[in-house]
Amino acid sequence: MSYVTAQTVWMTPTPSSIQDLLQDFFVIADTPDPEAGNLWADRVFQSDASLVTSQGAISGEQAIRNSRKHAWDAIKSRKHFIRRAYAGGQNAEDIMIHGDMHATIRSTGQEISVPFAARFVVGKDSIGSGKPKLSSYEVWADSAPLASALQQANAK
Predict the structure, then answer these.
(1) Which domain of life is it from (predicted)?
(2) Which of 12, 48, 143, 156 sits in a 20 to 30 Å window from 75, CA-based?
(3) How high is the pLDDT of residue 43?
């Protein structure tokens, strides 16, 4: 169990393979690895998956591979913590979470905390394989704290 899920309250029964998938998603997102997009495409998402974030919507394997290229340009560190998870569907394949993202701005060292909610949908074809993969991910967050911190950093 990593920092991502160490304090998670699983409000409904959720298979460990799906818990591990969500953990992998955030550990990859929180690691400043130039291969993060490839890791997401290879280990976390189906090839036809879609993602919706504050930066917009993307879909497909190549877009996922390219999605993390500038994720660390302005961020020095980032950690996501899942606080509560609610799974629905016959196989717990539709998951809503809420959590917190803590980040440090690279140029100023300013630390911010942003609460967020997200929906993960596990591809039905991958559930029985023992290696579930996401068919979609959508996140909702108040982007104002991050936007303000980045604006202040750019003003200096």
Answers:
(1) Eukaryota
(2) 48
(3) 97
